[in-house]
Amino acid sequence: MRRNRRGGGHQEFGGSGEDSFVAVVVTKLTGALLFILLLTMVIMALLPKAVDLAAPGASKAAAEARPLRIVTPPDLPEAIAGRPYAVAAAADGGRGPLRWSLDGALPPGLTFDAATGLLKGTPAKGTPQPLHLALRVTDGEALAAGPLRLVVYQSDVPLSTPVWWKPGIPPVPWRAWLDNGVGFLILWLVHLVGMSALAGFERQAAAMDLAIEGDAGAVVAGAGPELAPRRFVLYRAMVRLSTLSAMIGLAAWLWSTRP
């Protein structure tokens, strides 16, 4: 507080120059400290932590701690003759590219890739007994081996008719039907339908002959009444012979293709 020299009657309040200088210094120091703190936080975030850095021999020790071994199960998934098959061998450990080998006779249609360890293909036929194979893998230094067992089943899926014209209808198992005697039943039904149709035609022919004779007023000897029965007797014999031949052919085919 100071007095006014001219008036002397009133008082004025104001800060000294020293106080203003101290405030400026404090403000600048505060800003500098904040900048240094922010810069330190950024540097600490960018620097890798010591726990994240692996020791020089850590990777080598880890590889040596995990020896090469085959992890593929000894019993491979079953294969079915006539259907695509694929299974990949797997290994754990090792320190380099793996190279595979498979000892044993594979069924026709299956191949083994030594670079990828992939067993794939379409087996042509089933095997009467399980196949015993030996699987080996190497990384250039270590070698691991293990047994494998493969079973190839013979497909018993019956023959099916193509369904491209009706995709919504499942295929018809003709072979199963024929094995169960449905084929013979169908042939017998066709035979009955044929004989019934011939009987109907014969009745119509007899009625027409009677109508013609009635219109003429006289019966001509040796005409329709004798010729029509002979003709239909021949037709019946042809139907019976066709049915019998078809049944014999079906029986022979089932016998020759039996499993």
Automatic annotation (TrEMBL):
Gene3D superfamilies, A to Z: Immunoglobulins
Pfam family, any one: He_PIG
Regions crossing the membrane: 21-47, 181-201, 237-256
Keyword Repressor: no
Keywords, ordered alphabetically: Membrane, Transmembrane, Transmembrane helix
Record keyword Transmembrane helix present: yes
Name the UniProt record assigns to this protein: Ig domain-containing protein
